[in-house]
Amino acid sequence: MTEKMLEEIPILAKDLANDKKWKWLQEQNLLFIDNRQEFYQLIENLSALKRINEDECQIIINKIKPTDYEAFILGLHDLTCEPMPKRSQWFVGDKVRVYIFFVRILFNINAPNKYEILTKIVEKCFKKIPLVGPTSRKLGDEILSLFYNSGTIEGLGTLLKLKSRNKYPVFLEELEKVIPWAVRYSKLNPNDVEDYFISDYGLIGGVLEREFGEYKSKLKINDYDDIEVIWTKSENILKSEPSAVKTNFGNELKVWKSTVNDIKKEFSGQKLRFESFWKKKKSWSGEVWKKYFFDHQLLGFLTRKLIWRFETDGELKNGYFLNGQFVDFQNNQIHDIENTTVTLWHPALSSVEEVQAWRNFMLSNEVKQPFKQAYREVYIVTGAEINTSTFSNRFNNHVIRHVKFVALAQQRLWRYSHSDLYSGGENPSISYPDFKIKCTFDLESDYDFATTGQLHFRDTENNVALKMEDIPTLIFSESMRDTDLFVGVCSIGAEEQWENQRFREYWTGYSTSDLSETAQTRKSVIQTIISKLKIKDKCEVSDKYLKVTGKKRVYKIHFGSGNILMEPNDEYLCIIPDPKAAVKDKLFLPFDGDATLSIIISKALLLADDDKITDCVILNQINRK
C-alpha cells in the first residue's frame, strides 16, 4: 500500500486508545483536556475531514486548555530532538500524520505562544540531515501553509522571522515562495515589510515577567549578549528555580523557558539581519527607523550599539547614541533625527581619519558592538586587480575545510549547499538584486577539502563580467570581507595540529604568511588591548606576530592563524584553545565574532607566565630545545 493510499484511511479513535503502535501517545499526560477519548475522536475527525472548521471538531477544540496544550506540543518537540536511530520514528508515516493534526489544533486554539512554538517545529522540520535532506518536508510545508494561509499579520511576521534566522537553501526556497503571497495580502512595501514584524515578546524596558503562584520569574536584558532570569518570592531573590514551580506549574514553566530561549535566539538572528543591510540598499525615514528600530523593545539593544548615518538635504551626519542622545565621534550632539534618512554607517564610506576616530570613541567608551562595524575591514581594489580586470586572485590557492565552509557561506547569505559539496556543482555565489550584481568564488573541491580560486563579479542585468574598479565600493568591500572570513575561519592553516602529509606545505606556510585585512584589524585591536594589560612589558607587536617573552622561551603568535612559533628556531608550539579560557579573563573586546582574537590574547597571558604552566603536554614542547 502506498503512503498516499495510507493517508486516505482515517485514523480511528479506538486505535489511538488501544493499538500498541500508538503507545507513545497513550503514555502522554494529556492535561490539556478532561476527556482523553474526546481528543482521540478529534484526531479521527481531522484525519477524515482534512480541515478543522467542522462544528463537531470545534466543540472539542474549545475544551482544550491552551497553556497545557502548548506544553504538550513543546514536550513532543523535545522528544523529536532526542537522538533517534531512524528519522522515520517521528517524521514519516502515521506518526507525522498525527503530528500534522497536532499543529493544526495548536493553530486554531487561543494559545498565546502558538507562533513561537510552531516556529520551533518548522525549524526542526527543515533541519538538514546529511545525505537525506530536510528532517520532514511534509510537516514543515504544512506549518508554512498555516502561516501564509492564515491571512494575518502575525503569520507574515513569523515567515519573515524564519527568513532572518535560517540559511538552509531548501527552507529559503520555500520561504521565497510563500512570503510574496503574504506580503501581497498585507499590502505593504515588500522592501520594508521585514522591518515591521519583529516581535518584542511583550518586553517593557528590557524586562519580561511571569507569575507562578507565590513565585515570580523575571527575564532581564542587560545587553544583547547578557540576559538573566531572576526568581523571586515576596520580592526576595532566590538562588535558583524553585522546585515547587517545577512540581506545581510544570507546563507553564516549560512555555516560559521556551520564550526565554526564543528571545536569546532572536538576538542571534537579528545580528545577522542587521549586517545584511549593507548588501541591500536599505534606508528608512527617521520616523520609521525610530519606531521600528530605536524604540523597539528588543531591537533597541542592537540599535543603540551601532553607528548610524543621518542625511538631510545632502548633509550627512554619523552618530552613536550615548548618555541619552545621539552624538558624533567628537561628542557633538545630533538633533532632529526624525526628519532625516537613516542608513547603517559603514567605514568604507568615510575617511580613514573618521574611521580611526570612531574606533577611538568605541574604545574610550568601552562599547562592545554586536558585530564589527567601527573595526570593520575595508577592502579597496588593488593594482593587481586592476591588471587582471574582471577577476581577483587575492584569496587564491588556500586550502579550506569544505563542510565548514558550506555552513559559513550559507550563514553569510551565499548560495552554496551540501548538494554542491557532494556533486561538485555550482561555485558559491551571492547575488545583490538591488545592485544587479552577482559575485562568484571559484573552488576546486572534494568532500573534505576545497582549494580556493578566483573571485569575480557579473552584471546580472546585461550578463557581462564587471571590471574590479567598476564595482560599487560597498559591494566590493563586503564581498571581499566575506571571502577573507571564509579563508580565515575554514583554512586548515588555522588548525593547531596537522598530521596528514597532504597539504602539509600549505599548513606550515600559513603560520608565516602575510596578514589579510582581517588579521591586520586583529593586530590593531590586540596592540591596544595588550597595552592595558599587566603583561604589556613582556609583549611586542611586530609585522606578523605578537611576540611574548616568557621566563623559559620567546614566543611568536601569528595574528592570522593564532598559531605559535618558539624562538630561536621557530619551533611550532601546539596549544589546543580552551573555549572557557577567554571567558575567565573578562577582557573588554570592542566587537563580537572574532574567536581568534580572544584566543591570541589568552595564549599571550598563558605564555607570559610560562614558568607557571603545569600542563605536561605544553611543558614538554617548551622544554625541548
List the topology elements.
Elements (H helix, E strand, L loop, with lengths): L2 H5 L5 H6 L4 H4 L9 H14 L5 H7 L4 H16 L6 H4 L1 H16 L5 H12 L2 E2 L3 E2 L2 H13 L3 H13 L3 H18 L20 E6 L2 E9 L2 E8 L2 E2 L5 H6 L1 H26 L8 E2 H9 L5 H4 L4 E5 L2 E8 L2 E3 L13 E4 L7 H13 L18 H6 L10 E3 H10 L6 H6 L5 E4 L4 E9 L3 E11 L4 E2 L7 H18 L13 H7 L6 H14 L8 E3 L3 E5 L4 E5 L5 E3 L4 E3 L7 H5 L9 H14 L7 H8 L2
Antiparallel strand pairs: 1-2, 3-4, 4-5, 5-6, 7-11, 8-9, 8-11, 9-10, 12-15, 13-14, 14-15, 15-16, 17-18, 18-19, 19-20, 20-21
Helix pairs in contact: 4-5, 6-9, 6-14, 8-10, 9-10, 9-11, 10-11, 10-12, 11-12, 19-21
Describe the structure.
There is one protein chain. The protein is α+β, with helices and mostly antiparallel strands and 625 residues long. The chain has 26 helices and 21 strands. The strands form five sheets. Strands 7-11-8-9-10 form a five-stranded antiparallel sheet. Strands 12, 13, 14, 15 and 16 form a five-stranded antiparallel sheet that branches. The longest helix is centred in the middle third of the chain and has 26 residues, at 250-275. The termini are far apart. Mean pLDDT is 86; it is low at 1-7.
Features:
alpha+beta; 44% helix; five-stranded antiparallel beta sheet; 625 residues; disordered N terminus; 21 strands; 26 helices; single chain
